[in-house]
Give the backbone structure.
Amino acid sequence: MNNRIQAMYALLIAVAMFVAAWFFMQSVHGGPSSARAAVAARAAAPVAIDSTRCVASAEWMKSHHMQLLNKWRHDSVREGNRTHVTSDGRHFDKSLNTCLGCHASNPMFCFMCHEYANVKPTCWNCHVSPMEATK
Amino acid sequence: MIEKALKGGRGYWAWIALLLTCIGIGVSAYARQLTLGLGVTGMGRDISWGVYIAQFTFLVGVAASAVMVVLPYYLHNQKAFSKMVIVGEFLAVSAALMCMLFILADMGRPDRVVNVLRYPSPHSMVFWDVMVLNGYLLLNLIGGWAALGAERRSVPTAPWVRPLVFLSIPWAFSIHTVTAFLFAGLPGRHLWLTAVLAPRFLASAFAAGTAILILLSFILRKVARFDVGQEARNKLSVLAAYAGIANFFFLGTEFFTAFYSNVPAHKHSLQYLYFGLEGHAPLVPFMWFSLVVGILSVAMLVIPSLRHRNGTLAAACSGLVLSIWIDKGVGLVIGGFVPTPLEAVVDYLPTLNELSVTLGIWAIGLLVLTVLLKSVVAVRAQA
Amino acid sequence: MNQQRRDFLRKAGLGAIAGLGAAAGMFPLFALEKTDLSGFSEKPMPGKVRWGMLIDTRKCREGCTECIARCHHDHNVPDFGKTKNEVKWIWKSGYEEAFPTASRQFQQPEVKERKVLTLCNHCAEAPCTRACPTEATFRRWDGIVSMDYHRCIGCRFCMAACPYGSRSFNWQDPRPAVKELTTAYPTRERGVVEKCNFCAERLVKGQLPACVDSCPERALLFGDLNDPNSGLRRALDENETMQRKPELGTLPSLFYII
């Protein structure tokens, strides 16, 4: 008899899991989530654009540009929040093209450092690198 | 206990060597696929799944069929299955492993496989399939291994094992139901868009899976002198017979609905598979072979005098496995893509590269099964 | 510039912030648009805008492939020809292939032989986004069914789910098959699925999609389906239109005049 009781419990747990799963599915799918609602929360008064300085200090960019790019990509592709506001209030479009707008002036800019540090980022598998663009 | 798999005769090692050779072929073919892309397979824009997903579908059924020995043994105290249970559990482990390998082989970016867990998407059936398949593999591995360990030390199985085994029973149904839902929830693919797909998957799984178990028991008796008992085989053959009848009944209902209703979209895939469509009929001989052999095998299993003779039983089981493998492991997946959403009839032919990877994955599964069952045989021989 | 077009530009410009940042026009290879700071105050509210398209198949000229060439060039779509590895975002299908469930009994021969422009339908109830196990394909705030190529695992579930055949997989490295590389848009990598993005990269700059822009017959009309006063909605009010496989409940954002 003990067997039967255990079996009933197992069956109940399984059914409960599937019911829970169903409700989970219902709640998650179905239209844009509230997370996506919180897009582009940062609105700011118009300011003059300063293209002479980078979005952050060179020191910080050296160590964090990949995180910044990843964040920008996520925000602009998935959330529609394309505006980056720096700590001193300057505005930038969250796009790789923003970076290349300045840095492509030296087509080797990315490569020299990556080569030196022996890292092999996969960016240029898809994105057209400044080296290819100047060809 | 795994060390027991390191002792064996010449035949055993020859078998292992054969499997390792096949794995080697598979790995090198997979390396080629990784470098050049999935273009080395016969799949394309129109038939975007092929042998890999078809094998996966068939093997989920094999994995699920362990329940056909676990359920009667644990829930109905059928002592006849005492030796068979662990064979069923380990068959499920190797089949579930092969399923996952086939999914991996089919992925365009296998390096990103963890994305399924990093961005869990409960609205996607693949997410659930990954969950239930992994869970099922673990449940069976832990259950089988713990029972075997207890047996080796001649102690009763630990009390925490039983709830896991009980959980594996509904879980077995869930893995194949979710696998059917992968297909049955897609609009515009009329061969799959049918509520009877999940029941049909379960029926064909229980028919083919039990038939494989019976064949395994013959092989074990022959090569390892490990006999699960005639009674277990007899009972399994009855299960296989009824599951086989259910499978062909469901197939028949598909034909009725499609052809009696006369809705073109519902007929097209079945026409392509069984009669040919717009002059394309590459699978017609296979599907009819599957149908005829399958029905004959089921008939042999239904007749008691044939079912009880080892020779005819083995023949019927082989026929049933072959029939369902063609029906589910070839026809169902490929037929579902024809005609394409733009009404084109496109044929698919697997490439050598694709078949080599498939061979390699089957060999990995068989190797794991061999090692696990070798441990079982060694433990039993010692007892 | 007509009123319709002006409406569109205003909306696209507001919803999206066009080319911020630095060095606009200084480096023509990565030419950026002039900054439109008015966009800062506008957030993309999910569901506010729903981009849609009306295709007038009567105007579409036979043999003309202007929109296809322009789209495939602008998006670096590889050309593998008509092989099994084919990749395409927009193409022409026969009437009966595009509308297989529409009546073909005694249909006018001219209509039966007509070629119909087919592309992603950007469905409101997209089966592909439901099937995707990683949300690599998802419905955006503006109704565009978008692809996240950085996340796609290449399982091709979306391809099986799409009832319109709008999705292509990169069966091999697409780079060598891109005839003329456009620097303004990335290529894809082998192993991911790709499809029409309704020119999200142009909308953000306030431009119409490349196919709409390039059509010499002005057979394509683009606009906001959620705005009852948009040119698109007015055209839908005035004309009898069709959709592909409406019985599947996918609610496409593409409409056809036959």
